[in-house]
Write a structure and sequence with these properties.
heterodimer, A: mainly alpha, B: 329 residues, globular
């Protein structure tokens, strides 16, 4: 540490500027969300919170075009289900790739890495046709099932399992008569816990944020995810900006909460992934 | 868990490995069982749609039609003569370039700032990463207001320094700048952390010997840091390519009002993905034509990514084998 370059006051000044730019739009979102709709026409723009948040929230939930409460509930269901499933299946597959021997292992792993480069978004049209056949249009399975396990998750778990779980431990468990399933549950999963937590957080945030595919397949305005509620608010004929901003603030809040609580782990996950990749 | 298992005293010699029929089946089949969910899901919801997109693109296929006549390459030839398609292509590439270049430069600079002995290290890192974890849709709406013509904050600031207001949504280039600002706001901090991790893996003694040789800090940055970071920089560039060429949510929600899927009244900032949506879904519901757009977009991403890989081969060879052994702090 002592050999690191020292930070000059200029360094801190630049960092304060960068941090300010990063935080400002979020801060301002909460400012407008807490004021009456006149705030939008004021110059200079108001920079401190007002006392209107409660009234804005009430109007937002009364808004019959946005179905905001339904959106919040739907997004919670979708993001939670996807997160649990991705962590479960990715840790299973990651364990298999890192610690079990089987024919075709390397080739299949390469396939997984390749899938991470394929822009699957471009398949939205046939995916939409497929959902029509399954009669999942406008229903939550359409946005849950396709992402129940991801190539990114499998690869991340594989990388972590490779170094976090010792072969001796697995061998010992096998000698004691453990089948692979029990080895996964009793030996591998506990060791994977930190990486599984990061994967879970990233998955939750990505799923909560997803816009393109829900936008394509959930066309019933009465059954949106929260991001689609925001779209309905923003595209509305009459725009009441403090109400719209209240919506964006509430939709952002769970993400900020997760970030404040687990920011250190998320940053660690991103940075370690970068060095290993 | 680990400790418990290790602490188990080594009593009687370990029993022979189980050899029952079940356990042999277990070792042979379980791995496939464990990886099957991914491949199953990817086959149904990943590969099949991509291939099927191509099939659909060869047909005249719309939502209401009961028949989908085969038309061969007609969708593609029509598309290549379609002014709006080329317009969207130029928009996409334009936004991509003016967002990615400053983004990576700023990320490099930020990473260099963060790679010093700082107080409240985690605090700074969290502050620059927070844009990345907010809702994209929410941010697009907020930026749409900040860049508003009448009461937008940016035009107000311009007015303070005596400049004329800019039509951030009606001027084509200005709308590219505004959307790029949004993209950069979201991704600069993320890239900075990735670059920071790679910077910390550079062995310190390289810098020590350089300063003994009389190289100052700027010189060290350009002659040691940047060359050793090249693989990571290219990695960031590839990620930015895949994401940037598919840009959708930001430009879509930057615009509101009538037909926002067009990205402005004169398609000022309609990207290719938006153009695909406009044709495949509301208002046109022409799946065949939309699929052709999707495949050309896919081809474009492949080409740009291939260019990136070529760059990687040419520029990436100089990082030493020991350069990435240290774990980030």
């Amino acid at each position: 540490m002592s050999r690191l370059w020292r930070a000059s006051p200029l360094t801190y000044l630049a960092l304060v500027a960068a941090a300010g730019l990063s935080v400002f739009p979020i801060w301002w979102m909460f400012v407008v969300a807490s004021r009456s709709s006149d705030a939008m026409g004021q110059l200079p723009p108001p920079m401190t919170p007002g006392g209107n948040l409660g009234a804005n929230i009430a109007r937002l939930f009364d808004n019959t075009d946005a179905y905001f409460l339904t959106g919040l509930i739907n997004s919670t269901i979708v993001a939670t289900t996807v997160t649990v499933s991705v962590v479960f299946f990715s840790s299973l597959a990651g364990f298999a790739f890192a610690k079990l021997r089987f024919r075709g292992r390397n080739a299949l792993l390469l396939v997984i890495i390749a899938t991470m480069m394929v822009p699957t978004q471009l398949g939205v049209i046939p995916l939409y046709l497929l959902m029509t056949q399954l009669e999942w249009n406008d229903r939550l399975p359409a946005v849950i099932v396709p992402v129940l396990v991801t190539g990114f998750g499998v690869f991340m778990m594989r990388q972590y399992a490779g170094q976090a779980v010792s072969d001796e431990l697995i061998e010992a468990a096998r000698m004691d008569g453990c089948g692979t399933a029990r080895i996964w549950w009793h030996v591998v999963l506990p060791a994977l816990r930190p990486a599984a937590a990061v994967l879970g957080l990233l998955t939750f945030m990505t799923t909560w944020n997803d816009f393109l595919w829900p936008y394509a397949v959930l066309n019933d305005p009465a059954n949106p995810t929260v991001q689609l509620s925001l779209r309905a608010l923003s595209d509305g004929y009459y725009q009441d900006m403090s109400q719209v901003f209240t919506g964006t603030a509430i939709a952002t809040l769970p993400l900020l909460l997760v970030f404040v609580l687990f920011g250190r782990q998320i940053i660690g996950g991103i940075m370690e992934g970068a060095v290993k990749a | 868990m680990t400790v418990q298992l290790d602490a188990r005293p080594p009593v009687a010699p370990a029993p022979p490995p189980p050899t029952g029929r079940f356990s042999r089946l277990d070792t042979r089949l379980s791995p496939y069982l464990y990886i099957a969910p991914f491949f199953l899901l990817f086959a149904v919801f990943g590969v099949y749609p991509l291939a099927y997109t191509f099939w659909v693109s060869l047909h005249d296929w719309d939502l209401l039609g009961t028949e989908h006549p085969f038309v061969g390459a007609e969708n593609y030839t029509r598309l290549l003569a379609d002014v709006d398609f080329w317009h969207a292509l130029v928009n996409t590439l334009g936004i991509f370039v003016i967002s990615t270049v400053p983004q990576l430069l700023a990320a490099l600079w930020l990473a260099n700032l963060l790679n010093r002995g700082l107080r409240a290290r985690t605090g700074w890192r969290m502050a620059i990463l927070v844009p990345n974890v907010t809702s994209t849709a929410a941010v697009a709406i907020v930026f749409g207001v900040i860049f508003g013509r009448e009461f937008g904050m940016i035009n107000w600031l311009l007015d303070l320094v005596g400049m004329d207001p800019i039509g951030w949504k009606s001027n084509r280039f200005a709308s590219w700048v505004a959307i790029s600002a949004m993209v950069d706001w979201r991704w600069t901090g993320y890239n900075a952390l990735i670059l920071l991790a790679a910077m910390q893996a550079i062995p310190r003694d390289l810098y020590e010997s350089a300063s003994i040789d009389g190289a100052n800090r700027t010189r060290q940055f350009w002659s040691i840091t940047v060359p050793l970071l090249k693989p990571t920089i290219i990695f960031c560039a590839i990620i930015a390519t895949i994401g940037g060429l598919q840009l959708f949510t930001e430009p879509r929600l930057f615009h509101s009002g009538t037909n926002p899927i067009r990205g402005g009244p004169m398609r000022e900032s309609q990207t290719l993905t938006m153009y695909m949506f406009e044709n495949a879904f509301a208002p046109h519901y022409n799946f065949g034509y939309g699929s052709a757009v999707a495949w050309l977009l896919f081809a474009l991403i492949a080409i740009v990514a291939a260019v990136n890989v070529l760059l990687l081969r040419r520029l990436g060879g100089r990082s030493g084998p020991d350069a990435r052994k240290e774990t980030p702090r």
